[in-house]
Specification:
Structural class: alpha/beta
Strand order of the largest sheet: 1-5-6-7-10-11-12-13
Distance between the termini: 10 Å
Radius of gyration: 20 Å
CATH architecture: Alpha-Beta Barrel
Strand content: 15-25%
Number of strands: 13
Amino acid sequence: MIIDSNMHHLPEDLFTNEEMLNGFLSTAPRSFGEIAYMGTTEAGARQLILEKPKGYQNLNYVEGDYSLEMKLKTMDENGVDIAILRVPVWQEWLRVDTCRIVNDNAADMCKRSAGRLFANACVPPWGGKENIYELERCIKELGMIGVQLSCHYGQLYLDDEAFKPYFKVINEMDIPVVVHHTPLPVRWESIYEYTNLRRELGRLLDQATAVGRELYSGMFEEFPNLKFIHTMLGGNWFANYNVMIPKKPRKKEAMHRLDSGDADRIRGYLQKNIYFETSHPASWGKDEIECAIKVCGADHILFGTSFPVFYSWMADGVDFMKTLNLSDEDRSLIMSGNAIRLFNLKV
C-alpha cells in the first residue's frame, strides 16, 4: 500500500465562489509584506498568487489542479492508494469562518472519494472557544484524522505561550499534528532575491527553526501526547540531528560553550514527539533520503509528495522510493505503515 501523507487541498470552488475567494485574498497580512492577488498562467488559466516582498512570487495556485477528479486520476496513474489532505501554507492566516467552509469542502471530498482520501482539520491555532469548537467538530463530526499547523504565525513559532491553550486541547485529544512549512521564515530578508533560495531554502530554514525551538522549549514536557509531523524532512533536520544535540565532552573544558546537559531529554522528544515527511522525495536525491532514514529511523519518516504543485513530485516520488536501498519492512513503514499508525487509519 502507498499512502501520500501530503496532498494539497483547496476548495474545488475557490475560483468561482466569491465569498471563499475573498476569504483567502483578504486574510493575507499586508502589514507583514504578504501580497495576494489573482492572475493567469501563460496558458490562460486563473491562478491565486502570493508575493513577499512585492514582485517575488512564493505561491501559485492554479484553477483545476485541486479537483477530486484530478486527485484520483493522478493517484491511479501512479499507484497511490490513499492520500491525506492539508491546506498548503495559506492556513497561516485563514479566519475560522473561512476554515469552516474549507473543512466542510474537504470532508465532502473525502466522502466522495470512497475511502481514498482523508483530511486534516484546518483551524486557527488560538485558544478561543470558536476555534476549539471547530477543531472538535472536525474530528468528532467530520471524521478528520489530525490537525494541521504552520511553522509559525506572524512572528510566533509554535513554542510561544500564545498556542498553549490550543495545544492543551490537542494533547488531550491525542491527535497528530501536521506542521506545514510557510513560504519564508520569520527572518527572510537575506534570501528573497533568488528564486530557489526563496522558494526552497526559505521553507527549509523555517522548518529547521521550528523543530529546534520545539525541542528546546520544553513544550513536550507539558504536552507529552503531541506528535508533530514536519514537512520537508523538518528542514534538513537529519543533517542537524547530532550537531544540535552535542555530547558531553570527555575532558574538562575551560568553559561550556554549548548546552549538552539535556541531550538525553532532547533525543527522547525526537523519538516520541517529532516525525518527518519527505515532501517530494525525488527532489532530495537518493543519498539524502537514505541518510535521513538512517539517521532519523524508518519508523519516523512518512512518504509525502506535495501534489499538485508538480505532477512529477508524485509520479517521480513513487518511482524514486523504489530505488532506495531499504529493507521491505522499512519501505513499508515509510510508504504506509507510519501514516496508518500515527493517524490511526482504518484501512
